[in-house]
């Protein structure tokens, strides 16, 4: 450590643990630190030890109590030299006489340097950086103190400069503000000086160096800090010009219309504004203690033309709370406090061009009791007015890559379904894992970890794993298109479910071994391009299949086999398979013959027989390749001529 305070952490339960700090002198004969015992205290010399306990982590702080000022004449309790203190400390964590943890600290602390001269009231004159260097030592960044590795800093004493004399900053930043440049006649820094250099070199003073103004950035402008307030209207009578995609929706009170949404950090934000033409479907966890009501439903909304419309609200009562209450912290008692709260809100905005024509809201209410955790659901959907009842195809009805896949539960009163995969957090346990929707065209692979005991019943384990996997698919059908109507069954495809295959493996009654555990969920979605709207392809889902892959789970024994829990990873994978909308065109006879001469499909490529003589060959210059090729052709022609019988007769004559 190089400062008067240092922090560390003790991991584990700190109840009954005694923390102490001791000075560790070195043995004069061996030079090693002497071992300490658990009989120390929380104060040793000029050092104090403070411990802030926590649940599973305790913060340990070691601080120095003495001053670090340099000694003035006839002063005591100060630092006689710049290197004020060099000591070795040991921090011990003991339970009784048993040492649980040990921390060794080597403290080398320098004295604080301060300005002791007279302060002048004259303002410092800053030179123009374009004509004169701003400072002769740019690395001198700290006033009244020595900057490490800055050898031109006049505030560094000779003793301090010896510590970093071999690693000083170089170049302009290190103080060489006027280095000789390459074009200077007296400069010999160029490795290869051309012969014409003496005729074209520059005779100039170093004060006129090109490095002048190295830190000069020209004129500056005041940055415009964005404001989180709405811009005021220039004239009260000016009408609203309408919404564009992404604009926040405004209420009658000139405020944002907000609905709880999930932030980038994964947490739910209650006052998040709704963006025009941006759909979302989020789930937020809350309990009775932290529950807060959202924006009132009697708030009127700006249509986009300075007119205001009222929300059409329909209230429904939730009778089956199993889909929303995910955990109960304590069993219900007769005196448990319960309250009527909002379980879900579904918003439908009917729009036309740049205006909002109608807002329909469905609110689901239910009873939430103390000790229960509620999973609230909020959905916002924008539908075009050109559709019939807001559910017929509009714009591009097909799926777009990256958009959530629509799901429906046709066997429930509320047909809204979900098709999700895990989004683990923390330790990756299934109990704390969140969900995220399956996105169209995005192959995904996720999973979580399930804690399993050594005495786990195999049948119960299979049922528990199957329940965790089935919780991802709260649907019976998947929408063929992005705007599939819940009232039209032909707009949906039924999910094909394949049960896990049993291998009939017997374990012989052994504990810690369970075969045929359906630990892997496989979701395969087949889609095709069935057309285009305004040049944008329409993609439609044709079929969805869900299958399971089984594994043999075996209890993993840790060190000494003292652990009673093992981990079983369960996974879910999503695969999108594109199939042609029509059968492919059969290959013609010409294409089959041409394939024999295709260099990309055959090992022998006849068109590249004379490849070195073509311009595609870049191993040598083309002129050399051409010369070698002509020489080779001449030798072949000469060999053919000399092998002819009449040439031998002519030669003999």
TrEMBL record:
Q: Which GO terms describe its biological process?
A: cilium assembly; protein localization to ciliary transition zone; smoothened signaling pathway
Top-level taxon in the UniProt lineage: Eukaryota
Q: Which residues form the Tectonic-1-3 N-terminal domain?
A: 113-221
Q: Which residues form the Tectonic-1-3 domain?
A: 241-384, 398-579
The keyword Transmembrane helix is assigned to this record: no
Name a Pfam family for this protein: DUF1619_N
Task: Give the keywords, sorted.
Answer: Cilium biogenesis/degradation, Glycoprotein, Signal
Q: Which GO terms describe its cellular component?
A: MKS complex
The record ties this protein, via InterPro entries, to:
TCTN1-3, TCTN1-3_dom, TCTN1-3_N
**Per the similarity annotation, which family is this?**
Belongs to the tectonic family.
Quaternary form? Part of the tectonic-like complex (also named B9 complex).
Q: What is this protein called?
A: TECT2 protein
The source organism is Mystacornis crossleyi
Q: Which gene encodes it?
A: Tctn2
